[in-house]
Design a protein that fits this description.
alpha+beta, Naphthalene 1,2-dioxygenase Alpha Subunit, Chain A, domain 1, 2 domains, 8-stranded antiparallel sheet, 7 helices, 18% helix, 29% strand, binds FE2/S2 (inorganic) cluster, binds fe (ii) ion
């Protein structure tokens, strides 16, 4: 798990101006709320007075109020009222981390890290999101009892479909691709590949739609990732029909992942198809979850020698190489230390303001040395 990337925090509709939304991510707690202008804010959840949980409080005057002694924190994280000292400006140390926010695709994203804006890795842009030739299913959010890297790797693995996905028609990668390493292309902050599936696209498409259609073509499909936790899958059933699927993954801790899933389609654009396609997507997701929940070890091994990797695992290897680059930047959270010290100290992901101001009460999360 890494600092300095964009993470999905909440559905837009869950972030309100009349009550805080509390959530867990990267083994830590966060609180989100909306101000009267409609702007969403994401703050660290721990009150710097005596450790109250801001997410258990309430929202008043564009601020989140701690339920323990009523201290108020604005969207910038600064305490703006201490009820027992109503005539005094709160001290400079009375602040919590506030994270940069972007709201897109019905999701509130936070940049969980301290990099200045021009150095931040990107939030993935879904180019066709507002294109009238495409339609987005209602955002789906689901929890997976698995480590997020395992979930990402599952999406970057074209050879599991044949065995795991009867709901998609068990697509098989073409025979001439099986033995040679996948051709994986690096992109900015990630990588991607595209392969042909020999399986009749007819079956694949009709299963994916939950009906029996009769178009016969060959399907191509591919996947990619940007950063450690944003995954894309492109499935092209024919010249005119495709699914583009976007998975924004939020590691809850080292055992669980929350996935925000956006499914785009370029055909059957009428809203009445949403439910059926959404249901089939969930069946497919459950097929993956059933496998991921049983993987041992839960976390990705620290060396590729602890597994037997073959050419079709190439995209997984490239993903791991990218993670090593993020390790080299010193962005990996030292989760073992975090767990060992949990309960003795509160920890926060450092926010950008820590680069420019001092006097932070909460200890920054331990990181593995670069
Ligand atoms: S612990 Fe938050 S106001 Fe006292
Ligand atoms: Fe899968």
């Amino acid at each position: 798990m890494y600092i300095n990337f964009w993470y999905p925090v909440a559905r837009s509709e869950d972030v309100k101006s009349d009550a805080p939304f509390r959530t867990e991510l990267l083994g830590l707690r966060f609180v989100a709320f909306r101000d009267s202008q409609g702007q969403a804010h994401v703050l660290h959840d721990v009150c710097i007075h005596r450790g109250g949980s801001l997410g258990k409080g309430w929202v008043r005057d564009d601020s989140v109020v701690c339920p323990y002694h009523g201290w108020r924190f604005g969207g910038d994280g600064r305490c703006n009222l201490i009820p027992t000292l109503p005539d005094e400006a709160p001290p400079a140390r009375a602040k919590v981390d506030s994270y940069p926010v972007q709201e897109k695709y019905g999701i509130v994203f936070a940049f969980l890290g301290d990099l200045p804006e021009d150095e931040r890795p990107p939030l993935y842009q879904i180019e066709e999101y507002d294109d009238p030739g495409w339609r987005a299913n209602r955002l789906t959010v689901f929890e997976v009892p698995a480590f997020y890297e395992r979930s990402m790797e599952n999406g970057l693995d074209p050879s599991h479909n044949e065995f795991v996905h009867p709901a998609q028609g068990s697509p098989i990668i073409s025979a001439n691709l099986r033995k040679k390493p996948l051709e994986v292309e690096n992109v900015s902050w990630g990588s991607r590949f595209l392969v042909r599936f020999e399986h009749e696209a007819q079956a694949m498409e009709s299963k994916a739609l939950g009906d029996e259609r009769t178009v016969v073509t060959q399907a191509t499909a591919g996947s990619g990732h940007v950063g450690p936790n944003q995954m894309q899958t492109w499935i092209r059933f024919s010249e005119t029909s495709a699914f583009h699927q976007y998975f924004f993954e939020a590691p809850i801790d080292d055992m669980r992942t929350r996935i925000f899933f956006v499914n785009m389609r370029s055909f059957l654009l009428e809203p009445e198809h949403d439910d059926r396609i959404g249901r089939v997507n969930l069946v497919v997701a459950q097929e993956d979850i059933d496998i991921l929940a049983e993987l041992d070890p839960v976390q990705t091994p620290d060396s590729n020698t602890k597994e037997v990797l073959v050419p079709s695992d190439r995209a997984v290897v490239v993903y791991r190489e990218w993670l090593k680059q993020f390790d080299d930047k010193g962005w990996r959270i030292d989760f073992d230390t975090l767990k060992a010290r949990r309960g003795k100290s509160a920890f926060a992901i450092p926010s950008p303001a820590r680069r420019t101001s001092k006097n932070w009460v909460i200890e920054p999360v331990p990181l593995q040395p670069a």
